[in-house]
TrEMBL record:
InterPro entries: AceGlu_kinase-like_sf, Asp/Glu/Uridylate_kinase, G5K_ProB, Glu/AcGlu_kinase, Glu_5kinase, Glu_5kinase/COase_Synthase, Glutamate_5-kinase_CS. One of its GO terms (molecular function) is glutamate 5-kinase activity. The gene is proB. Catalyzes the transfer of a phosphate group to glutamate to form L-glutamate 5-phosphate. ATP binds at residues 16, 176-177, 219-225. It is found in: Cytoplasm. It comes from Roseburia yibonii. Residues 12-243 form the Aspartate/glutamate/uridylate kinase domain. This is Glutamate 5-kinase. PANTHER family: GLUTAMATE 5-KINASE (PTHR43654:SF3). It is an enzyme of class 2 (transferase). Substrate binds at residues 57, 144, 156. Pathway: Amino-acid biosynthesis; L-proline biosynthesis; L-glutamate 5-semialdehyde from L-glutamate: step 1/2.
């Protein structure tokens, strides 16, 4: 009961969806029904009076499919070309789907420099504030077409937590291909158990994340989700990892009727996101 009260107080929410959740695994083509459902869920959060931000991966995977590459691109310029094509297509589809509900969306593409440079960071923050004020849902991704190793966050789990920190979100939801954090990788250990609530990110929790992503299109994995949890909770946001197979889980999270892992906010007034990026991701 106490948890439910806590969660319905959330006013500003960031939702992240990964590449593998946006496409049909058999064909690599976009899962339009899921994207449509995602748009409806997020519009309904707006209707409840919340500020909503979507961090969507999928630019490279969408571009790769559109261009007709069968192999996952390794070469950086090929990835950048795929992202250029895919990001435009992703936004076109999102615009169309959100427009069904008369909901405006805007594109925000970021690099590490956006966060490290004081002027750019302030500009980004002002833009987000103005978009929320105007009732727009910002759709964020890494600026993959110009990001090389030195400039990129590398994964959208971390990026979504950085965005949550930048906008002072109350809640970050990571929609994954798995129900949440398990005591071990459940694809390798069938005895692994779901962890329902993490009060504090200690070494025991950090050691649970194994390997990198298992998907053919993503770049994250559980380790980057724990990095995201570290950033989000120290910034004062709760974070939930839940399965994005059915994006209807989004409203269930607010009804406290979901399976997933909740990482409780643990705000540290001395935590500065720009310093953290320079020290830890720089
Ligand atoms: N302790 C763990 N608990 C849950 N999943 C884990 C764990 N360790 C590793 N993983 C792996 O992380 C994957 C989820 O991350 P990822 O591949 O980035 O998917 P997504 O982009 O859909 O979030 C799981 O499918 C799982 O194989
Ligand atoms: N920015 C990249 C995706 C990066 C990423 O973290 O992907 P994912 O592991 O699918 O969330 C893209 O849009 O293709």
């Amino acid at each position: 009961m106490e948890d439910k009260k806590q969660e319905t107080r959330n006013r500003r929410v960031v939702v992240k969806i990964g590449s593998s959740s946006l496409q049909h695994p058999e064909t690599g083509d976009m899962n339009l029904i899921k994207m449509e459902h995602l748009a409806r869920e997020l519009c309904d959060l707006r209707n409840q009076g919340m500020d909503v931000c979507l961090v969507s991966s999928g630019a490279i995977a969408t571009g790769r499919k559109t261009i007709g590459l069968t192999e996952r691109p390794k070469n950086i310029s090929v990835k950048q070309a795929c992202a250029a094509v895919g990001q435009a297509k992703l936004m076109m589809i999102y615009q169309k789907m959100f427009a069904e509900y008369n909901q405006m969306v805007g594109q925000v593409l970021m690099t590490k420099n956006t966060m490290i440079n004081n002027v750019s960071r302030k500009n980004a923050q002002n833009t987000f504030e103005e978009l929320f004020h105007l009732g727009v849902i910002p759709i964020v991704n890494e600026n993959d077409t110009i990001s090389t190793y030195e400039m990129c966050f590398g994964d959208n789990d971390t990026l979504s937590a950085i965005v949550a920190s930048l906008v002072g979100a109350d809640l970050l939801i990571l929609l994954s291909d798995i129900d949440g954090l398990f005591t071990d990788d459940p694809h390798k250990n069938k005895d692994a158990k779901l962890v329902r609530v993490v009060e504090k990110l200690d070494n025991q929790i950090l050691h649970m994340a194994k390997g990198s992503t298992g998907s053919d299109v993503g770049t994250g994995g559980m380790a980057t989700k724990l990095t995201a949890a570290h950033i989000a909770t120290l910034s004062g946001a709760d974070m939930v990892i839940a399965n994005g197979e059915d994006v209807g889980i989004i409203h269930k999270i607010f009804e406290d009727d979901y399976v997933g892992t909740l990482f409780r906010a643990n705000k540290n007034e001395d935590f500065y996101i720009a310093d953290y990026i320079e020290e830890s991701i720089g």
